[in-house]
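ok, trying the design again with the full structure, not the truncated one.
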């Protein structure tokens, strides 16, 4: 069986992945608790606080629900821009073939370190720092078949 995918990863895919990881971890819980505490402080001291304290309280209230997602999106946009437009991933019985224009690199299955099904995508990692994202949008109707195929090759 052969599966071929052209790169269609968008900044929003990186953003969703990052936000999903953040808010499904201890960091996300701390963010939520901090934000709720800031709203409680505004409710309790908002009318009696001085201008400087009001600015700090306002900043604290928008830090995690507004500013963090915005800066994560900026980082995600940078990540998406680093991916070559003509990137093609081909999975077959031998492994993964990564093609960019006229250049190609073959990665055998034994070199694939992990394959995970995330929020709305499959992530194939070739080492601790490098991986390839295949979104559900790219997978289309072959999502289940591809997942079964890739699981059979990894195990």
């Amino acid at each position: 069986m052969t599966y071929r995918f052209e790169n269609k990863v968008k900044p929003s895919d990186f953003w969703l992945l990052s936000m999903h990881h953040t808010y499904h971890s201890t960091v996300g819980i701390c963010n939520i608790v901090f934000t709720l505490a800031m709203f409680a402080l505004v409710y309790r001291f908002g009318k009696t606080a001085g201008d400087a304290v009001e600015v700090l309280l306002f900043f604290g209230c928008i830090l995690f629900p507004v500013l963090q997602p915005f800066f994560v999106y900026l980082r995600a946009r940078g990540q998406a821009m680093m991916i070559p437009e003509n990137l093609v991933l081909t999975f077959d019985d031998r492994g993964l073939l990564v093609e960019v224009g006229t250049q190609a690199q073959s990665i055998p299955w034994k070199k694939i370190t992990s394959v995970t099904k995330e929020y709305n995508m499959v992530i194939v990692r070739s080492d601790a720092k490098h991986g390839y994202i295949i979104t559900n949008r790219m997978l289309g109707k072959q999502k289940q078949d591809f997942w079964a195929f890739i699981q059979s090759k990894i195990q």
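Keeping the full-length input from now on. Strands lie at 3-6, 87-91, 95-100, 103-108, 114-117, 121-125, 131-135.
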